[in-house]
C-alpha cells in the first residue's frame, strides 16, 4: 500500500503549507512550516503518530533540505526546528512523537503552562509575544476559547495570521464563550493596529463548501467543492457578530457564508 503524501504548497520561497491527506485522516489538518535564518517553525504536527500513514518527519526533512540548498548562506547545522501548536487537540499534536529525537528539534508542550513558559507570556492571554526565527519575526497571540492553550501566529513576512481552529472556513467550536469572544476581540485589535498589516487568515481545516452557508459534516472524506482556505481579515468582524447571537445552548449553531459557529 502506498503512503499518502502531504499536499504541499510553497506560499513563498520561505513558507510552506502542508495538508494531511483525507486518505490518512478525515480531518485533513493544515500544517505550516516557516523558515528563518536561524531556525524554522512548524505549526502543528497533524492527526497521526504513524509515519507510514502520514510521513511527517520525512516530509519535513525533504523540505528543509530543499530550503537549505537554496539558502547556502545559512550555516547553522543541524538547522534548528521549533515545533509549536495552534492548540492541543489530538488532530494537531498527534505527530509530535514522530519528531522525538530529531536533531536540533524542540517541541513545545501542549498545556497552557508549557505554552506560556516557552513563549514568555507575562500576561496570558492578553498580549502578543515576539518570536524571532532569524530575520523573520512572528507574533504569538493568546487565543483560548476553542481550547485552553490555543494561540494564533502572525507572520510579519507574509502578513498571514495563522488561526488554527479558532477561525477557519468550517465549524467554529466555542467551548468557552467568554474566552472565545475575548480572543476574537483581541485578534481584531491586533488586526487594526498600524504595526500589524494582516493580509489574510489561514486556519487549520476547510469544511465549508462553495455554496454559502453549506458545511461538510464531520467525517466527510470527499470535499470536491470546498472553499479555499484563506479568509479575509474582515472575517473576524463577522465571527464577532455571530457570537453575539449565541445564547449558549449546547449544540446551538449560527451559520454564515464562510463559517458555522457552534456552541460546544
From TrEMBL:
Gene3D superfamilies: Ribonuclease Z/Hydroxyacylglutathione hydrolase-like. Residues 28-205 form the Metallo-beta-lactamase domain. InterPro entries: Metallo-B-lactamas, NDM-1-like, RibonucZ/Hydroxyglut_hydro. SUPFAM superfamilies: Metallo-hydrolase/oxidoreductase. PANTHER family: ACYL-COENZYME A THIOESTERASE MBLAC2 (PTHR42951:SF4), METALLO-BETA-LACTAMASE DOMAIN-CONTAINING (PTHR42951). This is MBL fold metallo-hydrolase. The lineage of its organism: Bacteria, Bacillati, Actinomycetota, Actinomycetes, Micrococcales.
Amino acid at each position: 500500500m502506498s503512503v499518502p503524501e502531504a499536499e504541499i504548497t510553497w506560499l513563498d520561497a520561505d513558507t510552506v503549507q502542508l495538508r494531511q491527506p483525507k486518505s490518512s485522516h478525515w480531518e485533513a489538518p493544515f500544517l505550516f512550516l516557516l523558515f528563518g535564518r536561524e531556525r524554522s517553525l512548524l505549526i502543528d504536527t497533524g492527526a497521526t503518530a504513524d509515519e507510514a500513514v502520514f510521513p511527517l518527519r520525512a516530509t519535513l526533512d525533504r523540505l528543509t533540505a530543499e530550503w537549505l540548498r537554496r539558502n547556502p548562506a545559512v550555516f547553522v547545522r543541524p538547522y534548528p526546528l521549533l515545533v509549536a501548536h495552534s492548540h492541543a487537540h489530538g488532530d494537531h499534536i498527534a505527530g509530535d512523537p514522530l519528531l522525538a529525537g530529531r536533531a536540533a528539534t524542540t517541541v513545545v508542550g501542549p498545556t497552557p503552562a508549557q505554552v506560556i513558559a516557552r513563549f514568555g507570556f507575562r500576561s496570558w492571554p492578553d498580549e502578543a509575544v515576539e518570536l524571532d526565527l532569524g530575520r523573520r519575526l512572528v507574533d504569538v497571540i493568546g487565543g483560548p476559547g476553542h481550547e485552553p492553550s490555543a494561540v494564533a501566529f502572525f507572520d510579519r513576512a507574509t502578513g498571514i495570521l495563522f488561526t488554527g481552529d479558532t477561525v477557519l472556513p468550517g465549524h467554529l467550536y466555542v467551548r468557552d464563550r467568554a474566552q472565545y469572544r475575548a480572543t476574537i476581540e483581541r485578534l481584531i485589535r491586533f488586526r487594526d493596529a498600524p504595526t500589524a498589516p494582516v493580509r489574510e487568515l489561514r486556519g487549520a481545516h476547510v469544511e465549508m463548501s462553495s455554496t454559502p452557508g453549506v458545511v461538510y459534516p464531520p467525517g466527510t472524506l470527499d470535499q470536491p467543492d470546498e472553499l479555499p482556505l484563506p479568509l479575509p481579515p474582515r472575517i473576524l468582524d463577522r465571527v464577532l457578530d455571530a457570537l453575539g447571537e449565541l445564547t449558549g445552548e449546547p449544540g446551538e449553531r449560527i451559520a454564515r457564508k464562510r463559517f458555522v459557529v457552534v456552541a460546544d
